[in-house]
Amino acid sequence: MTARSTRFPIVGIGASAGGIPAMEGLFKGVTGQPGMAFVIITHLSPNRESLLHEVVSRYTEMPVSVVEDGTMVQPDHVYVMPQNVTLAIESGVLHLRRPNGLTQERKPIDIFFSALGEDQGEYAVGVILSGGDSDGTLGAKAIKERGGFIVAQAPDGYGPRNPDMPQSAIASGLVDVAVTAEEIGAKLEAFARGFDTLDGLAEDDGDETPDIDKVREQIYAILRSHSGHDFSGYKTKTFLRRVKRRMQIAQVHSISGYIDWLKKDA
Q1: Comparing C-alpha atoms, which of 153, 149, 143, 147 is closest to residue 191?
Q2: Which of 2, 125, 134, 205 supports an S-S bond with 168, CB 3.0-4.6 Å?
Q3: Predicted TM-score of the model (pTM)
Q4: Which residue, among 148, 131, 130, has the nearest Cα to 139 in the 3D structure?
Q5: What percent of the chain has pLDDT over 90?
Q6: What is the set of domains in the chain, with CATH numbers?
Q7: 147 to each of 51, 104, 233, how far by Cα in Å?
């Protein structure tokens, strides 16, 4: 299979107990052509046929399908992991991994998020919805380390009915945005639009100016204090793209305003 010529965000959605109403809220907030792809990872019984793809199709105009081995991810599509497998992604192609027969994988969200971060880098998005345990938190770390974006569900009428998964991610300091299920779609679309509007930004790494150096150090210090993670290894182009995208999502219009927003959020 050939690789895609145009990149776009791929959104991994992790959900478990209480995840269906959360997904309803999320997809009702997403337009029919958001310029992203969505891959749903859930904790499914290996012995019961899942009809999740049929349920999700009620909430969105996008095509919804069950993943088959070798599926090429396309924008404006929703893909649902089948039961009794884990999911991997390589060069934008989804692959099914069968359990070894001795033990069932208990962290399918971590497994896919980790693969997604490694494969897609800054185009990787992890969304953690209602569910038990802490599945998704380790995978979120892998996405963040490669420049991706993490969203967790905050309480509203769609849940989370079981808050353990999103709360674990939020407590880790890795979450970029924690909003209600109905608000997640708008945040994701703002993130996706950032790639279109920033294509010409810092095309060459070049020499860093003192002002950029100062801004970088301020932002990195805040992030280190908040999350304990060091993001100082990014190149200038990647750094500027990430800052501009997050300014857009936070609806702030200056670097100083963004730094103030970070301090307040921390």
Answers
A1: 149
A2: 134
A3: 0.80
A4: 148
A5: 53
A6: 10-195 (3.40.50.180), 201-265 (no CATH)
A7: 33, 30, 10
